[in-house]
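User: Predict structure, ligand heme C.
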Amino acid sequence: MDPMNFSRRNFFALAAASATEFRALMAQDRAKVGMNVLSTRPEDLEMPLSGFSDYITPIEHFFVRTHVYVPTVNLNEWRLSIDGEVATPLTLTMDDVKKLPAVELVSVVECAGNGRGFIDPPVPGLQWTNGSVGNAIWRGVRLADVLKRAGIKDSGKEILFNGADVPLGAMQDFRRSIPVKKALDQNTLLAYEMNGVTLPVKHGFPLRVVAPGWASDSWVKWLTNITVLDKEFDGFWMKNAYRKPDHPIAPGSAMPPEKMIPVTSLRVKSVIARPVDGATVRLGEEVNVQGVAWSGDKGPIASVDVSSDGGRTWKPADLDPRKSQFGWRLWGFSFRPDRESYYNVMARATDASGDSQPFTQEWNPSGYGWNVVQRVGVNVVESPQTTMQGSMIIPAQQSIPAGPYKDACLTCHEEDVIRQQRLTRAQWDREITKMTNWGAPVKPENRDSILNYLVQQFGPRPR
Ligand code: HEC
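Assistant: Predicted complex:
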C-alpha cells in the first residue's frame, strides 16, 4: 500500500483489524516517521505530521522536550521524598510506590509551546510546528494516594515537583508546582510505565508526573521530590517562564511576568495529518482528510467539522470509536471534488464544553497555547505531473567563525536553537540577558557585536 494512502479507510479498519494486521499497518506507518530535531543538545525532537495517524503514539515517534541534559538515574539509589506541609514526611523506594494501587489511563501530553513556530510576529523559544504532542498509555499510581500517606496539612495549597535533572550554568533548577485540587484529582498520576514498557529515560525514568489535560510543563520528569507548599512556588519556572496573559494582547507587545498567569489547561485543537499542504489529487479521486483532535480540562472532543472551501461550509467528520477523557480522537472525512480547483481544507474541533478552535491566533509573548484552525491546500487537477518526492536539499553546515559569539553562545547548546529564531533587536537583547543570567560568558565589550551578529543573521522575517 502506498503510505500516502494510509487514510481514513485504513484507520477505521485498524479498529476492526486482527492483531497481526494491526501490527503490520502500524509498523508500516512507523517506518516512515523520522523525527524533526529542534535541538540536538539538550535534546528537543518533534513528531512530523505523518505521526498523527496513530491512536497511541509509539515511543519512537514521541516528541522529546528537555530543558537541560537528561540525568542518569540508578534505581537502587533513587528515592521519592515527600515533605513540606505534611503530617508525616516520607521517603519511598520504587517498591514502596508500586505497592499502591496501579492505575492506567490514556492521555495526550502537549508542550505549552507547541505551534510556536506559526506565531506572527515570531517569539523566542523552540520553533515547534504541530508535533510537540503525543498520546500515550500511562501506568502508575495516583498522586492522591501518595499524598494521603503523607497527610497534607490544612496549610498545604500547592504541590511542588523536582526532578533529578541538574541545571546548566547559573540556571535555576526546573521545578513546578500545581494546586492541591489538581494534585488530588483521581486522574493525576505518578507514572512508571508508558505504552506498556518501563518509562524510557527521555520521558522521565523512573517516575514522572502525569497531569492529564494540562500542558507538559507540569508533567515533571525524573521525579525525586514532592514538597507541599502553603503557596504557589516562586522560582523562575513558575514566576517567569510558562506564563501567559489572561486575555489576548496586541501582537508584539510586552507584558511583565507578574501580570501574567501560569499555563495550565490545554485548549481544544485539531491537526490535519493528511493530505499535506500543497498535495495534488487527480480529478475524480476521493480526497481523504484525516487527523486527530484533543482538548484539556474542558474535554473530551465532541465533534470535528471539516470544510473544503476555505471555511464557507462545514460538514461533520467521522470520529474513530476509540476515545477517552484525555486522549486524542482520530477523525476522518472524505470528499470527491467535482472540478479542477485549489481546495482550502480546514478542520475545527469542538469539545464537550462547546469550546471551538479560533480562526485567528491569540498572540502572547512566549507563544503558548497555539490552537488556531489549520488549513491545508489541495490542488485538484485533471492530470497530475509526477513530482520528485522527498528531494530535500540539505544546506551545507556553515562553519561558525571563532570569536566572542561562539565562545559565549555555543557551549551549553548547539547553534540549532539559535538558527530557528527570527527575532527583533529588542528580543535578541532580552535573550542575551536571559542567557547571561544563566551563565553565558558574554564580556561587556563583546555584547554589542554579539547582538549585531544575532540580529543580522537571525533577525525578523522580511515583511
Ligand atoms: C549556561 C549555558 C548556556 C549558554 C552559555 C547559552 N545558553 Fe542559550 N540556552 C541554554 C539552555 C539550557 C536553553 C534551553 C532552555 C529550555 O529548553 O527551556 C537555552 C536556549 C536558548 C534559546 C532558545 C530560546 C529560549 O530562550 O529557550 C536561544 C535562542 C538561546 N539559548 C540563545 C543563546 C545565545 C544567543 C547565547 C549566547 C549569548 C546562549 N544561548 C548561551 C543555556 C545556555
